[in-house]
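A common beginner's mistake is to predict each chain separately and then try to dock the pieces by hand. The better habit, illustrated here, is to supply every component at once so that their relative placement is modeled jointly.
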Amino acid sequence: MTKHHDTDPFAALDRFMAESAPPPVIDDARMVRLANATLAALPRQPTGGISRSGGLGRWRDLLLRYAAPMALAGLAGILVGLFALPSQEATPLVQLLHPTSIIEAKL
Amino acid sequence: MRIAKGDQTAFRSLMERHARPMLSLAQRTLGQAEDADEVVQEAFLKVWTMAASWQPDGAARFSTWLYRVVLNACIDRKRRKTMAPLDEAGDPVDPAQNSHDHAVARERHALVRDAMGDLPDRQREALSLHYFSDLTAPKAAEILGLSVSALEALLVRGKKGLRVALARRGIAGLGDV
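With all components supplied together, the output reads:
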């Protein structure tokens, strides 16, 4: 990058660093090996955005994996809560949905 | 971008265009050819993974971004590795050198890497680009996100620190410490 000359206060350091840095070894065989190894390690399809099918697939997977089961579990919880409550504690909504509880409560 | 659609031929062409300077920087920064291969491979895997969200018209040019990824990976790797004993140092970068020169070069480079480990990350990044790449000052400044004058100031601080760190390791005569 910056080339040194004798008036440079860091000329000696720059010379030392230039002599210490090993020359890179980048032959064609290494390049081919690197390219092949990288291609072999590639995931099937690039990801990272939602503008492509890969990205949309990721959102769909997340929805199916987490959101849908949570919604189903929540619905099941509401239904159990509505119909399994003791009749004495039944709310007007439960009484409406479960009329026998009204009779039980009156008895 | 064809790579975003999974075009491996386009990806290979991209690698052929950009891999050499990245390997050069990584090899000279890390001192180990195998480590450099791994760093560059990881950088290109990142390119593939992020291809769908890559914006060609973004502020950062592709090569600038790639240099930054490789440089950060090299710094991270060096941070993780403390200075290994020379007999555990693995394969050298240049096996063609004769054994005496080779041993001296390895020892000096190990010292340099160790000394650079004493410096703050930003100074280390600037010095790595300065000493281990053939980049111009404006390009190096762009990679680091600095103005050229800020880079030069960073290099001065880095060189002073490096000189002190080398002196602590017995390398004298590199200027006032």
